[in-house]
Fold Aldo/keto reductase.
Amino acid sequence: MEYARLGRTGLEVSRICLGCMTYGDPPRGNHRWTLDEATARPFFTRALDLGINFFDTANVYSDGSSEEYLGRAIKDLIPREEVVIATKVHGRMRPGPNGGGLSRAAIMMEIDHSLRRLGTDHVDLYQIHRWDYATPIEEVMEALHDVVKAGKARYIGASSMHAWQFAKAQQVAERNGWTRFVSMQNHLSLLYREEEREMIPLCQDQGVGLIPWSPLARGKLTRPWDASSARSETDELGKRIYATMPEADAAVVARVGAVAEARGIPRAQVALAWVLNKPGVVAPIIGASKESHLDDAVAALKVKLTEDEVKTLEEAYRPHPVLGFR
């Protein structure tokens, strides 16, 4: 395993982050394809055996059960101080007023609920899952600052939003002497590269670490374009994001297959190697529903693509509509 600092912080994280949306009680939440706790536990064990110390979840994943699974696994398997736990806030957790979003009321309530489910007194990285258009950013940043000062989070991060929104949030924090975001969890893969235009250059300039989500495009980069899986057939977000440019995307997937075949390695290693070697990327967040997914992710750290291979992979890409911010 390789380790890196998260942005300009002193926090060391594994260069592979295990995303925990895959693990949760199937009847709870929006994802019926999630793995129950008994099935999920070996993935936490394998990740730790491989040297992964960075785990990402969210309060909204499977109605909180993802946090519960992760918290119990860490308690049973490893000392708390040896892992980096990241979770997120924004998604609706209950109907009615104040059941979601980034108001001060929601943030203060949800951090306590997340800590209870995770079985810890702090998270290492507390992230806003999306931008809240209904709450002033000053209210959001001050609340997050207070969460840090209360010792409930070590650092704060953000996820998919427009670059101008992220810049505004950082400026508000700096102007008021509040805690700034140290990481950006954005959407980046060979099938979605719109973040290269503004967000990634902004983060590089400001020393913000990138921890991309869906680096394998919901698995579409790991198999032929016309193949499917149980998740892809029920994943509404994936259907929406990867339905806008099917011909162009199919061409990219074919090129991933060609490079993988020439090297004699799985497609997943090629696609993930491309993300890992993008400037500013600290740790892609990978989902794993098979043990081989973890093994391929770690093996991708050793794959160094040539300039010709990168050109082959990138030149078929066509501009996409900006998606995934809401």
Remarks:
- The domain at 3-216+275-303 is CATH 3.20.20.100 (TIM Barrel).
- The first helix runs from residue 37 to 49.
- Strands lie at 3-5, 12-14, 17-19, 54-56, 84-89, 123-128, 153-159, 181-185, 209-210, 285-286.
- The chain has a mean pLDDT of 95.
